[in-house]
Amino acid sequence: MVVRVAMSPRTIASSLLIASLSGCSSDGGPMAGTGSSGESSTTVAMTTGVGSSDSSGSVTAETTATTEGSSGTSPTTTGSVDDSSGTGGLGHSPGCGTDPQTVTAGSIDVDGTPRSYMLVLPPDYDRDHAYPIVFGFHGQGGDSALAQSIYQLEDYWPEPVIVVYPQGLMQVGTETGWDLASNGEDIAFFDAMANAFAQELCLDLDRIYAMGFSFGGYMSNYLACYRGNYLRGIAAVGGGGPSPGDTCQSPVGAMIIHGSTDDVVPYSQGQASRNKWVAVNGCSDATRSWDPMDADGLPTECLDYQGCAERTTFCTHAATHTWRTWMNPEIPKFLAGL
Asked: Which CATH number describes the domain made up of 3-8+85-336?
């Protein structure tokens, strides 16, 4: 069982947490309620067309979208936080000790644009325990509900984890996607979410991850380059980037997965991503090979590069632009093990 929660709509200074993690000072603290409003609940049936870059057909999902106003009081806090599973770097977030709001869909205002996400908490969420958090970005033409149904991160993560499935805007004609520019609307969206979650949830700030398939893989790669001082690791499946000319902030654990016969995003794009992270992470040419065991028996090989500042893995499977079932357990295992 999982519990889906979301934050009340709010405007966030999106640079607050990122700036503080970069060593800049900030006056921002945990956010308290500033007013009160009523509560409304609406059940929405959504039929989402899936672009050919992800799968075929359509997905019908029913969700309850609820918004709650704040109570006008500051969060209740406690003094002791369990962050024993962390790495001892940035520590736990300001949101530890506070009670999160519990609604089924989330919305946040980013520079005047309302953005949405699905947030999944562990079933026994403990406000005094610092959790890892992972962002799962959907592919072109997808949405947060489809991403959850494919990735199932909360089901396969080897320990209790907070999962975020962001919702992209129209980027490619009439299909959803991601703005990959370093100063674009989706980097601002990530910054706003990261800040809001840190203020209201108990996070282990040393264990922040991102992953995605197809366009979501591109987003994960570029995000790791632009926010490498914040992300511990990423997994990109059937994606590409960052560009060879992009200067990435710092080493980041990276698992790059690509089909050798990908007919949507060329295999060379995956190879370029591998080469980028091998260089950024300072790896040698030496590798260790392992087989994640494809359920259909398709030839699959993963290479762990040696001598890296952060673990760097490149996996090739003999399929097209598809999500393979072995990725469900292997991606969480890779990220959680960094």
From this structure: 3.40.50.1820
